[in-house]
Amino acid sequence: DDEFLPQPGKYHPNVNASFLNKIPIDQTVLGVHIDAGRISTTVIQENKGIKSLLAVDLFSADNRHLDSAETPSDFSDACQEAMDRLDDKLLDYDDLYKSASRSVNRRDAIALTIEHDRMLLRLVQVPKENKKEKQQVIEWAIKKDLPFPADDAILNYVAGNNNIYHVGVGEKNILEDTADLLTELGWEIRSWYPVAQAVYNAFIWSYPEHRKKNTLIIHLGEENSTILGCVKGRLIIVRPLYIGVQSLTEALRDNGLPIDKWYARDAYKVSESFLRAMGQKV
């Protein structure tokens, strides 16, 4: 509604659009988020600086612990099925969204996030006097606190605010094995974000009115979650939370309730109106 999203799809002043967005052509992005046994897919089309959500699908695999390294076959099959479902959804609108449908069918513009303990976002503050050596400072700060050998880490960083750098870090073997599986499916990955960075990006886009406020964001995942702290729109804290939605499933089973399908949660949903009321007061 207009009160919740006063300018749906439009860039607000605090988000810089790419120069490509000024070209009057359709641009389609296929967003994919993989979290344990859940695969969320979205299709967003941008035309003349306005983003439109064309399709959304949420697929639940039989295996609720999908992992590209430990269960590669299940992982690939689930990814393929999730895409097939999205293709079917777009068939009904093929006449309206021909260019978007073609892009989705080709899998040629995918923005990916995967919830994994070996794919992380870290924040590193680099003093002004060390700007010239920022790569060494970042590498030293990151590699001293990793859940895997530092020599196996792949880093990518961008400047944030107040000399804080957002550093994406992943274990090389996990990243390469996952990329190989998705390449075999014909996926072309245009961007691959740590989950915490994607959540922060969504927050900045969706809640420009919080730019001057202090905000605590809790992202609930399937097996693990993330807490993000923002001060006047600037991300300053990222912390893991070792509990997820599937913890509810385990709690119910521990109390003797039979659950045949781990993803059958309709009876436990919180109403949208309640969540919106909470969101407005953050």
Number of helices: 7
The helix content, as a percent range, equals: 25-40%
Low-confidence stretches: none
Please identify the structural class as seen in this structure: alpha+beta
Largest sheet: 5 strands, mixed
**Count of individual beta strands:** 11
* Assigned CATH architecture: 2-Layer Sandwich
List keywords for this structure.
282 residues; alpha+beta; Nucleotidyltransferase, domain 5; five-stranded mixed beta sheet; 30% strand
Please sum up the structure shown.
The chain has 282 residues and is an alpha+beta fold. Helices cover 29% and strands 30% of the residues. The chain has a single domain (19-244), classed as Nucleotidyltransferase, domain 5.
Write a structural description.
This protein has a five-stranded mixed β-sheet with strand order 3-2-1-4-8. A three-stranded antiparallel β-sheet has the order 5-7-6, sandwiched between helices. The longest helix has 20 residues, at 72-91. The chain has seven helices and eleven strands. The protein has a single domain (19-244), classed as Nucleotidyltransferase, domain 5, CATH 3.30.420. A hairpin with a 4-residue loop joins strand 6 (153-159) and strand 7 (164-171). The mean pLDDT is 87. It is of the alpha+beta class.
